[in-house]
Amino acid sequence: MCGRYVITLTLDQMGALFETADRPNLAPNWNAAPTQDLPVVRRGADGAARLSAIRWGLIPHWSKTGPTGAKPLINARSETAAEKPAFRTALKRRRALVPADGFYEWQAGPDGKQPWYITRTDGAPMVFAGLWERWGEGDARVDSFAILTREAGPDTAWLHDRAPVILERGAFAAWLDPDTAPGPFFGPLAEASLTTRPVSRRVNAVRENDAGLLDPVETVAGEGGQAPA
Predict the structure, then answer these.
(1) Among residues 127, 158, 174, 228, which is most buried (max CB within 10 A)?
(2) What does the alpha-carbon distance between residue 91 and residue 139 come to, in Å, rounded to a whole number?
(3) 173 falls within a domain
(4) Does residue 222 form part of some domain?
């Protein structure tokens, strides 16, 4: 799954990555968490990519309680999204690109949970496959998104059995196009595509948000699970 991630790309970097000139008010975020407004790219009415900041935690358009209701839907399983009432229409019509530097997963140990930071081995930004929805109207309107997940590959399966669906740069436009079947995007990444390292346990507190969260720390090999060789 993906429950916390990092997004520090500048507007210029995102503009170059997604070929968009939009300039929403964004700040670097080293501990992006559910219910926060975070950058996504969606397809505009003219077919062009548009960058904006919307709420992480999808609210189905038919929800009776909106953002004050049930636990936000931050992830959608790629294997079942087409069948779930909360996600199936968005998968057909409202897809999104979710940029990130990397994401966190946790390893349980005898003295608590140790966060690990996961990035692309090639150093490129991550772009998650997302879905978005619009709830309400007028001043009450809320746009929100969820990140699609798949079975984790060998790089991270020792940490968690799920991982975000990560898109390659050449697939961005096709993913946003509702006429493109989603299934081919859900395949596994090549082995050794992702790199992991243990980082500060301050990540565990959402209020902590600074570059120091990414400083590598020492951890005991095999503590609470299996650390990479």
Answers:
(1) 127
(2) 26
(3) yes
(4) no
Residue 2 is among the residues annotated as catalytic for this protein: yes
Q: What is the CATH number of the domain that holds 36?
A: 3.90.1680.10
Report in angstroms the alpha-carbon separations of 9 from 93, 153, 159: 27, 26, 26
pLDDT tens, the chain, 229 aa long? 789 999 999 999 999 999 999 999 999 999 999 999 999 999 999 999 999 999 999 999 999 999 988 788 999 999 999 999 999 999 999 999 999 999 999 999 888 899 999 999 999 999 999 999 999 999 999 999 999 999 999 999 999 999 999 999 999 999 999 999 999 999 888 899 999 999 999 999 999 999 999 999 987 544 434 444 4
Q: Where are the beta strands (DSSP E) in 121-216?
A: 126-135, 142-151, 162-164, 194-198
Number of domains in the chain: 1
Token look-up 């997940």 returns 149
Exposed e or buried b for every residue in 119-151, given b needs 16+ CB within 10 A?
bbeeeebbbbbbbbbebeeeeeebbbbbbbbbe
pTM higher than 0.85:
yes
The question of whether 223 is a catalytic residue gets the answer no
Q: List the catalytic residue out of 83, 105, 151, 191.
A: 105
Residue 42 belongs to what domain range? 5-214
Provide the token pair at 135: 């709830």
Residue 226 lies in a domain: no
